[in-house]
Structures are given as C-alpha cells and as structure tokens.
Amino acid sequence: MDKALAFWLGSCLGSFLNVVILRLPKGRSIVSPPSRCPHCRAQIAWHDNIPILSWLLLRGRCRRCRKPISPRYPAVELVFACLSLALWLRWGAQPLWAGCAILASGVLVAVALIDWDTFLIPDELSLGLLAAAPLICSFNPIIAGSAPAWYSPYLVCLRGAAVGFALCWAVAAAGEKIFGKEAMGGGDIKLLAAIGAWSGGLGAFDCLMVGSLLGSAYGIAQMAGGKLKRSDPIPFGPFLAAGAVFNFFYVLPLGFPFV
Ligand SMILES: [Zn+2]
Fold first, then answer.
1. Number of other CB atoms surrounding residue 219 within 10 Å
2. Residue 110 lies in a domain
3. Based on CB atoms within 10 Å of each CB, which residue in 42, 90, 116, 201 is the most buried?
4. Each residue of 153-201: pLDDT tens digit?
5. Is this model's pTM higher than 0.90 or not?
6. What is the 43 CA–ligand 1 centroid distance (Å)?
7. What angle, rounded to 10 degrees, do the helices at 237-247 and 186-224 form?
8. Alpha carbon of 44 to ligand 1 centroid (Å)
9. What is the DSSP secondary-structure string of 198-231?
10. Between 2-23 and 72-91, two packed helices, what is the crossing angle to 10 degrees?
11. Domain housing 5
C-alpha cells in the first residue's frame, strides 16, 4: 500500500515538475493560472490532467483541438514516479529522510530538464537546495547515524558545500585553460555546492565523477552518431543531477562523517 502511494504521489509531483520546468525559466508563476493546451489555450480539466493516465487515454492529443501534446510530460511523470518508489524502497524505514530525498530529487529533475532546454540553472533551484541542506542534514541517516556530536551533520554539510564549490570551480577553470572555452558555468558550480551540502565532500566528488562519466559517454555517442560536432555545447547540469540522484541511494562509499 505504501509503495503504491509513493508511486502515485511521485507521479503527481512529476506533473507539478512539468509546470516548473515550463514556467520557471520564463519567470511565470508556478501556481497559477491552471495548465492550458499550448496550441488552443483551452484550460485542461482535472480529469484530463491525471498523471500518465490522461495522456494515454487521450492518445497524446488535446481533447479540444486534437493537436499533439509532447510525450515528455507523461515521461517525466512516469520517471519521477519510479524514482520516488525506488527512494521509498531504499529509505522507507526513515520516512522523514525518504521524503527529503524524494523532494530533492524532484528539484534535481527540474534542474536537469531546464538546463537541457535553456543551458541555465535557475538560482531558485540550486540555491534553494543549498539553503535547505542545513535544515534536513540531521535527518540523513548516513550523516546523522554515525555522527559523534549534535553539530557533526552541520559540519559535514558545510564542508560538503565548500568541497563541491571548490571542486567544480577548479574543473571549470582547468577546462577553460585546456579547451579555451567555457566547459562549465556558474550554475554548475552552485549546483555542485548544493549537492555537496546534501551528501558531503566525498558525495560531491562522487557526483562529479559519475556526472563526467555520463556526460562524456553521451558526448562521444552523439559525436559518433554524427548528431553533434566537437564545438557544440552540452549542458552539464543534467549529468550532475543524475550523479546527485544516484548519490541518494548511497551505493558508492561516501565516507561519512569524515568528509
Ligand atoms: Zn488544444
């Protein structure tokens, strides 16, 4: 029962993420007005706005004008529903932390797709994640579980942010020297600082490694397929976000509370 609930809540959050991804870069409100068809501007009724299902039932078309609606909307809902379920299965015994990890993953999914679309990471998301870290770090079972003192989680959080910032800044500076162009932007640096604050210094390092690996694999595959030239920019945020979500499962050793 709790698993079905995690999946369903995840799909609803995914539906909200679609709104955030669409409206935040344009500076529009994410709470009002209600969703409309991008073609005919008809307001979408609640029964046509049920995550995943409505898109399938309407066969990917608007009820009024029958023009196609992007399959990305149900895809985001489905992926985030699965991710929420997976995080619940991993952390269900610590429901408070499970909730934090699910919400943070939602922010990371929004970061990934906004950066993919616009090559920008909104400060509201990266700095918001950074500001939330000290509020939730004592719920993190990996950090707090082995912490010798009450303030230890806050130290891990602070050091993690500093390490994330410094690591990403160093890689960005080195990249600019070697390739003579901007490989990573200020948005990536703020994002990795936030990720460090959530998962510690070694977590930030792991995330940068996983992100670089995924980003290079994508770049090489696209260039091999002739879809991308060497000079074409690739946003790095989606790969860092993937690394950060991967961190939430604590597969790699993170070395808490020493880093
Ligand atoms: Zn329409």
1. 15
2. no
3. 201
4. 899 899 999 999 999 999 888 888 887 777 778 899 999 999 999 998 8
5. yes
6. 9
7. 100
8. 9
9. HHHHHHHHHHHHHHHHHHHHHHHHHHHTTS--TT
10. 140
11. 1-92
